[in-house]
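Researcher: Please predict.
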Amino acid sequence: MVFRQDGMSKDFCYTEDIGDLCIFFSESEAFCVKASLYPGLKPNSIYYLGPRLGSYDLASGTNSPFKFDHFGKPSLVVPF
């Protein structure tokens, strides 16, 4: 679930739309980038790294694990 903070009231509201942003989660810090600046990234998505690698589309609710090549390396996109 993704929550955004209202700038005026400082309240948190559930959202399914983060627009052109992508959120990246890993075992270190989370960060956001504009998808339009990085070809191959899907807007309104969460990319995650950890025990599993993949992305989650907020609008459709679909999870897409990354595919691995025959050497066992994930096919990652920028900015990983």
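Model: Residues 2-65 form one domain.
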